[in-house]
């Protein structure tokens, strides 16, 4: 088990009831919104704000953030992604001021079993933290049980849809098994990647932890310097996306690679139509080397504030 997690729970008194709040995301890069979700969930569970009447009292709340794989992320955003190792580093920077949040490398179910095995004298209650639109997309309230609970953080435009869906499913908002949190201002990862491409520190300061923003900007600067000093026939110019500059091989529609080649983590990015190696795109030291796949052209109150 991760030593950081062991250190978190070893200081708890016997018989304590602990809420284990887990969240899985791409975090490319981790934003202030991710951290805000955990903070709001903690406030609800500890009773610092209005909460469901049937929800137990908790002595402590711990947050565990898991990251999707490089292949999953690059497939999702259709661009090169920050590598898993560096996304992990950025998470640690972002949560450095919140010791109760830590990075988890285990699946949610496995993590909860490990916690109980590590401290059988404690009562752990598992909450899955997710965004309202993701909950709606997968109808995840159907997975909700007393053993696996959910906390949904609302995004603009989805709050009413979620509340209506939960009411239609006859979920009891006072039981505390499915909790609807407040609306969190949305932070677009695409907007962050555009700001990185343009070197816009003022925009990044609003969306990212200062240490995360500094790391990302330093990696972009390092890549730009390497491009300025390198002699190579393919010289991408600065653009406005995390393909930041125009990425070698980022013209996905013209990419004729087979699925096996696209998923090969040992491949490097190449310009379409050439077999020569091209320099890696921005965040060269922190990028995954995965290729991206081609793109085919009412009565209940569910908020407790």
Layout of helices and strands:
Blueprint: H1 3-9, E1 17-25, H2 32-45, E2 60-67, H3 70-77, H4 84-94, E3 101-103, H5 108-118, E4 123-131, H6 132-138, E5 148-154, H7 159-168, E6 178-183, H8 189-198, H9 201-207, H10 210-229, H11 259-262
Helix pairs in contact: 4-10, 6-7
Principal-axes geometry comes out as globular
Order of helices and strands: HEHEHHEHEHEHEHHHH
CATH evolutionary superfamily of the largest domain: HUPs
In order across it, which strands form the biggest sheet?
Answer: 3-2-1-4-5-6
Provide a count of the helices.
Answer: 11
CATH class of the largest domain: Alpha Beta
Q: How many β-strand runs?
A: 6
Our estimate of the beta-strand percent is 5-15%
- The end-to-end distance, rounded to whole angstroms, is 37 Å
Give the proportion of residues in helices: 25-40%
State the secondary-structure class: alpha/beta
Largest sheet: 6 strands, parallel
Mean pLDDT: 77
